[in-house]
Amino acid sequence: MELSSVKFNKTDAGDFYKVLRKRVNAYFKENNVSRYANTNMVLKTVFMLSLYIVPFILILTVLNATSLIVLMWIFMGFGMAGIGLSIMHDANHGAYSKNKTVNRVLGKLINLVGGSDTNWKIQHNVLHHTYTNVEGMDEDIDIGVLMRFSPNQKLLKGHRFQHIYAWFLYGMMTLMWTFSKDYAQFSRYKKRGLIETQGISPAGLLSIIIVSKVVYLGVFLVLPLIFSALPWWGTLLCFFLMNFIAGLTLAAIFQPAHVVPSSDFQKPDTSGNIELDWAVNQLMNTANFAPKSRLFSWYVGGLNYQVEHHLFPNICHVHYPKIADIVRDTAFEYNLPYYSYETFAAAIIEHGRMLRNLGRHKDAPGIH
After folding, report:
1. Which of 106, 121, 123, 273 is the most exposed, having the fewest neighbouring CB atoms within 10 Å of its CB?
2. CB contact at 8 A, 285 and 133
3. pTM of the entire structure?
4. 368: pLDDT confidence band, cut at 50, 70 and 90?
5. Coil, helix or strand at residue 92
6. 169, HSE (Cβ side, Cα atoms, 13 Å)
7. Which pLDDT score is estimated for 4?
8. Which residues contact residue 76 at a Cβ distance below 8 angstroms, ignoring those fewer than 6 apart?
């Protein structure tokens, strides 16, 4: 279905989002606070980049002990995820800085970890954020026959075990970016005319994807194969380990925010109409977790505050804890839901339960 033909209900929530935006804007104005990155965010940026790059330099230069080299690759895995969660994500939403050049440069850090910033913005900003959990529109809940993330999707026999094998597939996320997903997305987005919306031609994007993959693999795989003290097979295993840690970390943060029993999973009717208002759809299909864990929230780029992020993606994540009470209270004022799990473990358990239900029941009990 074409984007232009899919429309949200504009009347079922009254002036909820209008009032909410007014209150959030008032918070920043009254406290004289910028909605962009602050000093702490800049320091975090330096830390995450260092967590990825410094261990890599040590692997290529001074380290000889196998255990230390493996440890450095592990650090790089968490650094890779940290770059995605805490830097690239805000930048590609235009939330890191009011300077578009800063956002553009930092947004391209995804290319440093094997992805494509243009494809990511189409999948995440255009499709996922606009049509969260909407069948046929949100690619985050549609990864083919291997997984069933929505009750609107066909139930296959193999899905019975998806709550078990999902975690391995999640760990393959960044490797898929590198070797297959970006090319498949390029082909799909070209057919849908979505590439041009990002100010680039299909030929230009394909060239950038190919060159960035060659550079990424040349630097982060070929150089260690040549200069690391590990044998070639050890380096390949460590490269896989780094990517598996990053992929599993990223999926463990994003999936429990949307594929949980409270999610609504809207499906457009034959005319492309969606039953819910856009903002209400965000509330119905998004959940927070571990809001009181400051260290956890720091590492995951505030994405445990997914409700706030989906309603205000153009605000830097360092401000989400401060506006969370405003969002929650306004939602309750309008008799709208505000889903939040007390801990990260609780969210992971509920996501696993959801996968199990979706894999065994056509209508998936527990889903609204």
Report:
1. 273
2. yes
3. 0.94
4. very low
5. helix
6. 14
7. 67
8. 51, 52, 55, 56, 242
